[in-house]
Amino acid sequence: MNYPVSEITDKKLPLLELVLADSSIVENICEQTSFTDRIRVFMEFIQAVTREEQAVPEFIDYSVKKIYTHKGNITIKELAEDTGYSDRYLRRKFEEFIGMKPKLFCQIVRVQNSLQTLMYRRDFHLMDVLDELGYYDQSHFIGEFKRFNMLPPSQLKKLLVNEAYDIGGIV
User: Fold this and answer.
1) In a shared domain, residues 27 and 39
2) CA separation for the pair 114, 121 (Å, rounded)
3) Does residue 47 sit in the same domain as residue 65?
4) How far is 152 from 141, CA to CA, in rounded Å?
5) Can you tell me the distance from the alpha carbon of 169 to that of 61, in angstroms, rounded to the nearest whole number?
6) How far apart are CA 28 and CA 107, in angstroms?
7) pTM given for the model
8) Would you say residue 171 lies in a domain?
9) Which residues are CB-neighbours of 142 under 8 A, at least 6 positions away?
10) Which of 1, 63, 122, 134 lies at a CB distance of 3.0 to 4.6 Å from 73, suitable for a disulfide?
């Protein structure tokens, strides 16, 4: 790729400018009939390119796995102590290889886990999510949730339930 991950995160770039190698990726994407298939083709391409070009350091890979294991409820200080690197170095390398700061990555993982709970658990109680994912209070959770989903959890749950009934599914 022409750019490191940290320079393309949250940016709009023409795909052909982004990639050096195979320009047929655009054709391959366009040939797909569904959005899901287009995403799959793009992800396979990006994974192959990034695997070839830039090996992620083991401590960054370990940190990402640790964040997922803790459902995003881990501090950068804990990660630094666990990996043996300084907070500053870990943050810098994490951003270089992952494309975002580790704190933001943790927040995204926490919100993804809360969204999964909201979507798939019938016995969903807000206090369960707060406790399980380490939110300080309800307003902190709702604020972070809205930041990434544009809606508070209760409205999103209603929207998902209504949409599932509209297409014949059951939530």
Assistant:
1) yes
2) 10
3) no
4) 9
5) 37
6) 34
7) 0.65
8) no
9) 152, 153
10) 134
